[in-house]
Each structure stands twice: as structure tokens, then as C-alpha cells.
Amino acid sequence: MEGFMVNVATGAMNSLLDKLTTLLGKEFRLQNRLKHDIAFLKDELSCMNALLEKLANMEVVDQQMKEWRKQVRELAYDIEDCIDEYMHQPYQQRSSGIIGFFHLYVQKVKELVGHREVAQQIKELKERVVEASHRRKRYKTEVDLVTTNVSIDPRLSALYVDSSEIVGIDTPRDNLINMLNDGEQSLKVISIHGPGGLGKTTLANEAYKKISWQFDCKAFVSVSQKPDVKKILRVIISQVKNQDYAKTETGDENWLIDVLRGFLKNKRYFIIIDDIWSTQAWRTIKCALLENTCGSRIVVTTRIATIAKSCCSPHHGTVYELRPLSQADSMILFYKRIFGSEDLCPINLKDAATEIIKRCGGLPLAIITMASLMTTKSDRREEWLRVCSSIGLGLQNYEAEEMERILSLSYSDLPYHLKTCLLYLSMYPEDYEIDMFQLVRRWMAEGFLKVKSGRSLVDEGKCYFNELINRSLIQPVSIGLDGQATACRVHDMILDLIVSKAVEENFITLIGDPMQKLVSKEKVRRLSIDYRAQEVLISWPSMMLSQARSLSIFGYSENMLPVSKFQALRMLDLESTVKLQNCDLHNIGDLFQLRYLRIAASSITHLPDKIGGLQFLETLDLRRTWIRKLPASIVKLRRLNYLLVNGSQLLEGVGHLQSLEELSGISVYNECSTNSLQELGSLTNLKTLRLTWHVSDSRNDRATYTDILASSLGKLVSTRLRFLRIIRGSGSVDIPLESWSSPPHLLRELYVPGCCFHRIPEWMTSMANLYRLCIRVKPVTQEILHILGHLPALLDLELRSKAADDPMEMLILCNSTFKCLKIFRLYGPIKGLTFEAGAVPQIEALSIEIKACQAQSAFADHPDLGIRHLTSLRDLNVWINCGGARLEDVEVVEGAISGATNLLPNHPKLNIHRDNQEEMVKG
């Protein structure tokens, strides 16, 4: 929206001011003239930065101020580029460790500021700053406004509401279901049509959850503006066949269509195709959805009327026009979002609230966005009226510019640091699921995060992420047991908004977006290229790329420019579903400023040894490559915080990586030395460790290996380690974790399914922060359940019972244990498991294995195993071991469990599986 300012300069300005402050420190001996020039730059730029922060909160800014702001933004970038360029000087490594690296860094900067060319460039840049300051005064550009600080809302858990709390969905959902359940046996296609933000996807999803169980197979897939049809077909195959996406067929489109048609031929299927933007995409997908006479149904959502009609014809379908919420439902949604109910709204705000609701025109997205904005305001009527007066009229007619005005108002209310972080999301393609941890690490590499209140940079980034969710500017995905979203998506309308602003301000240059036809004539600062949907033709010579700070590439092209041409990169993310040649990475070690490197391409099998030259690298993410051996030079990366791999062997010299906070995906093979296992224990900053253990049980020195690893792990859990996952490979020797002497007080997750405990060690009873536990026990006993049941924070428990020589006992979960547990899995042979009244009051998911031939006595005393007491249960999975049992015994178990489950108020989803049926007693 014209007039709403974007303070994107702060991304460069803040880091620049930090560097200028460092240059003025006592440890540098600057010539008086140079010191004076740098001090002048720092003071003048600090004043300019303060003005830029004010501009970020202005609603209307004239053209002169916009032009001045653009010049200051580019000036800040150029000054930082000047400093960074001269920091790139080869140097001898004369000492080791963090202190040694710091001294070398200081020496480099001393050499930088003493260089005559630097002094000359600083002088020229100072003249540009002076001219920018004079220009503002010359044209009498003034600003007068008050800024507003916004704190993080602690009520994040209230955002993740159940479908029962969605307002106004019942009637349209029931109407849609009636249209689907009309008894017709021929294929029927229904199109849900309406503008963006009206809730088409929500409606389709609610109907899907209600009736999908009636069909033989089902799928829910999103299409988007730039559809990858091959990927869409694979997703549908994965869902209708109920198999992992990675295991789906990988042939061409024609072959995938034939596979899907063959599978659906005699099936009653229910498929939702969400967000169709073109008839061509629909025609291709429809080829795979065989028209049969089994009563199959397809639902399509689109915001384009002609496409809605095209999809449902001639398949006996109809267009369902989704209407805006009524005034009553709009008020319920708005007040519930802010106050919990209308009754709790202060009387002095009622008239302003009513007007805000009216101007949202019944659009759920607009209502939620405005409600999220108003939660940050005080209860002063004047403040609410001021916001109300800022909203344009006309939403009743679904005019796109009015919706943009609504969203822009919420955007402009963001603090400047959140504006920068939100704009950065335009680097990702439409409908992309953005991993929270990857995003936070990219923000860190860009210098967008500042530590405050004693939090780490990662924790600060999570707060930024949660605040954007709180303001409904991003959509949470994959909510964990702790209530934290681990990923997000950006709604189409929000994405359109931030893309337009990011491109306008030369914050990001997008290539591959059909809406962005013009290539920037300015210096490219951040570049995102999407090669996936279509052939992208780029005129590299016409683009100024030498100062680009970020490069994200999705897909692959033979004409891709070598990444070594981007000398100023701080962040490099290469993601390809097809071949990405190793030769593209040969000179990656020349990117001296690189902080973040992610490579997601299965064709990559090795890295060049020069990668050890990336002395500023903080994140190296290779989880989606096929690299099994890392270059030895990796241990030179003394600032590396996150090393994420996919089965790569544990490095020799890993102890040199003292800054590591996360080491994930590493493997320990027979070839690993005992020195590397010992050095692992010296990584005292490590918070997350995920490794796979492949040391064979046939080794003569296996006891030495296991003792050293157990000792190293004991050192780590006694310092800062929070998350420990160990997967034991087939035939690998056990690890004696029971030998730990110090209690792991900080450990939150212990996932060691391959490590067998004969008893619960003493240190496990003191784990007050543990919320996820997975262990193997020989066998699971009542005593073990009693001990683990008193862990105060335990939310997720997986016990794998190893068979014992003694007869199995009946296990009972008492009402005094597992007060917080939400997920419980018990695998392995047990006689039976019963639940007392009041036991596991918060249990949502339960998976158990029962041996039918030994369960008769259990069902005699507890006909339903106490399942009727589990009122919070949502998912129940039961594996019945049929070995040694009669068919009647198995059916008794199944009937008892089914009967108890049917009585529960939540109507849990029940899955019963029979194992070892070939060992069932005949007759």
C-alpha cells in the first residue's frame, strides 16, 4: 500500500554501527584523522538510523523523504561492504581456540584501518554521508512522530485453537457435506469459490475431517500459483496409499498418472485439491483422478470464478459460493480472539469494536488480523478509535486494495526489527513450509537478531517467530507438545503484501515469480531464484550481484551462475529436487563472509576441502545431501555453532569445534578412533546431540568403545546438553548409559530406543526437565512405571519391553502417576495393561501391544482394560500378538477394546492390528 514505510535499512545499519563502534575501541591504534572520520560516520549514521526507525512507523511519507531514505539505505550497505572487503585478507593461524581466533580477528582489523586505501574510501564515504545530511536539510524534509514499543505476548498457547472453536463454520460445513453425501455413485466435483481470506481451505478441511473416514482412500493437497504437478501427484499417491512421501514412485508425470489411475480404479476416494489458480493445472491433475462409479468425490478450492466452473463441469458438480461471516459470527470471532467473549469487552470499547468489525466485511482473515492487532493496544477508547479511522471502507465488495489496507495496517504496527524479519520471508516460495530453526539461523546470519533480557540469539529468534504468529502474520505449522510451532507458512495475501514491499525497497530481488517481471537495476542485496515451476531465463550481466548478502536457490538450472561470484554472501541456501552438480561448490571456500550454508540436494556426495576457510561460518546444514565423509578441514571452523548432517562419520579432531551447540545426524562407525569419541565429551557448549551408533558387536575392543562413548555422553549431560538421541544400528553393541554418575538435570529429551536398561538408574529419577523419553527395558515392570510416573514434566513416553525369563506381570497405571503425560507407547510382550480411574488424565495418544493368549485373566478382572477412564484420548493403536492364542481369544480382546473406545466422549480414532496370525492355534 503506497505510503506505508519499510525500515529495511536497519538490517545493514545496525551491524554497521556495531563495527564502527569496534573500530573506535581502545584495542585499535588509529591515526587521528581516520579516527575522527570514523567517529563522525558513527555519530551521523546513528542519527540517521534513529530517523529511519521513526519513518518505519509513519503512515504517509512524501516522495522526497522516500528518496532520501533510499539513499541512506544504500549508503549504509556500501560502508559495510567497504569494511568487509578489506577484512578479507589471508592470515597465518598462530594460535588455537576462541581466544586465538579473537586475537587474529583483531589483528586483521588493525591492518584494515591502517591501510591507505581504506582511509581514502572512508573519506569518500564520509563525503557521501555529509551530502545526504545536507540534502535532507536543503529540501526541508522533517519528521515528527512518537514511536510505540510492542512487547511479546505470553499468551501464545491460546492461538492454537481446536476446530470446535472456529466461528461460523457449522452451517457451510454441513451444507457442503450434504452436497457430497447425496447418494450419487458417479464421480462428483464441487468447487468452493470465494476471495482470499474468506476461509475456503478451512471449510474444505473441516468437511474432510468429518467424512473422510467414509471413503476407501483420501488425500488433501495444495496446488498454489506455480504448481509442481509431479510433486502434487506424488503427494496424492503418498496419501491415498498411506505411505511415506519419500517412498512414492519417482517416474515422469505420465507414469505417475497411470499409477494413480490404476490404484483408484475400484476405490471410493475423497480428494481435496486446494488453491487452484489455472485450468491447465486442474486438467493435468484431473487426468489422474479416474472417473468411476464408486461414489468418489473431489473438492476444489479457488478464488477465480471461471476456474471454479471449469473444475466442476461436466462432473455432476456445482460451485459452492462461500459467503462472508454474518455480523453476529464476526462479533463472536473478534471478541473471542481478544477478550474470550463479548461479555468481557470493556463497555467503553464497544462502539469502536463494532465499527472495526463492520469494516472487516465478514472476512475471517481480516477479522483475525485486526483482532490480533488490537490485542497489542491499551483499553483507551481514543486509541481504538484512531485505529478504526485508519481502516478504509468497502471490504463488503471484496476489493483487493481494501484487504491490503487492513493487512498493511497490521504490518505497519510492527516494531522495526519484526518488519525486517517478516519481509525476509518473501525469500521463500508460495506455500513453502518454513522450518522455524532454519529461519532463525538465517536471521542470525543476516544480523537481524539482537540479544536482550539475557536470552540467547536462538531464543530471541523464537520470540520474534512467536510474535509474528501472535499477530496472525504467519500461520503456525506442526505444533509440538510444548505448544511451540516448529514451522510456519505465509498466507497468500500476506505474501503478496510483503513481496511488494520487499521489492519496492530493494530489500529482496525475486526471480521466478510470475508477478515480478522486472529485474532490479539497483545493486542486488538479497536474491531468491525459483527454478522449479518453469524455465527461468536470467540475464546475469545486467544484474549487479557482487554485493548480494543472501542467495536462495530452489530447483536447478544448467545456466546457474557459480556461487563463487557472490563474494559478499552471508547466507547461502541451495535446495534442489534434481541434480545439483558438485562442481558448482568447488570455490565455495572463497565466500569469506559466509555465516550460513545449507545444501539440500541428494546428488551432493562430497564437499571441497577449501570449506575450512569459511572462518565466520556458524551454520552448516547438509541433512538433505548424501555426504558420508566430511572434509578434514571442517574442524577449522572455530565459530561453527550448528553442524547438521545425514549420516556423516564422526570427524577426527571434532574437539576443536568448541563453539558447537548442535551436532545432528552424525554416525559412529567401526573406523572411528577412540580419540574422536573422547573429544566428543569436550564439546561442553553442546545442547543437542543426535547420532547413530554402528559399532559392531563382533569387535574385540567393543567394551572400550562403549565405555568411552558412555563417559563422553556423561560429561555432556552434566553440562549443557538438552536433547540426546542415539539410534543403534543393526548388530551394534549396547551402550552402558546406566554408568552415568552425574544427574543430567538439564536434559529435556532422551531418545535411546536401542539402549537396554535392566533397571531404572538413579540419575533418571532426578530429571525434572525431561519431557520426552524413549528407552528399552528388560522387562517393563510395575516398579518401572511407578518410578517414571513421578517425573514431573514428562509428556511423551515410549517404553520398549524386552522379553524376560520370568513370567510377565499385569501392569497397572495408577491415578497418582503420569499427571502430564500426553503420549504413551508401550511396545513388546506384556500380559496386559489397565488404567485406574483418574490415571493419565491428559493422555491423547496411546499405543500398546497385547499378547492375546495371556490376556484372558486381565480381561476377566478389567473387561475394558480401564480404557473407559481415558476421557482425553484421541488416538488408540493396539497391536494384538496372536501367537499361541485361539481366534476366540483374539476376538474377545478386540471386542473389549472397541466397546470401551466407542463409549469415550472424544470418539478416538481406533486402529487394531493383528500380528503373528500364522502362529494362531487352529480350531
Here the CATH topology of the domain at 169-321 equals: Rossmann fold
Flag low-confidence runs. Answer: 1-11, 89-102, 143-161, 393-399
Individual helix count: 25
The CATH superfamily of the domain at 169-321 is known as P-loop containing nucleotide triphosphate hydrolases
DSSP, total strands: 27
Q: How does the major sheet shape up?
A: 17 strands, parallel
Compute the average pLDDT.
Answer: 79
Shape: globular
**Helix residue percentage:** 25-40%
CATH class of the domain at 169-321: Alpha Beta
Q: What is the strand content?
A: 15-25%
User: What's the end-to-end separation, in Å?
Assistant: 77 Å
| Classification by helices and strands | alpha/beta
> What's the Cα radius of gyration?
31 Å
- What kind of oligomer do you see? single chain
Brief rundown of the structure:
By secondary structure, this protein is α/β, with parallel strands linked by helices. Residues 172-340 form the NB-ARC domain.
Describe the 3D structure.
- The chain is of the alpha/beta class and 923 residues long.
- Among the domains are: 10-138, no CATH class; 169-321, Rossmann fold (3-Layer(aba) Sandwich), CATH 3.40.50; 325-412, Helicase, Ruva Protein, domain 3 (Orthogonal Bundle), CATH 1.10.8; 416-504, Arc Repressor Mutant, subunit A; 771-923.
- It contains 25 helices and 27 strands.
- The strands form four sheets. It has a 17-stranded parallel beta sheet, with helices on both faces. A five-stranded parallel beta sheet has the order 2-3-4-1-5, sandwiched between helices. A three-stranded antiparallel beta sheet has the order 6-8-7.
- β17 (688-693), α22 (702-717) and β18 form a beta-alpha-beta unit.
- α3 (63-87) runs antiparallel to α5, α6 (170-180) crosses α7 and α12 (327-338) packs across α13.
- The longest helix is centred in the first third of the chain and has 25 residues, at 63-87.
- The termini are far apart.
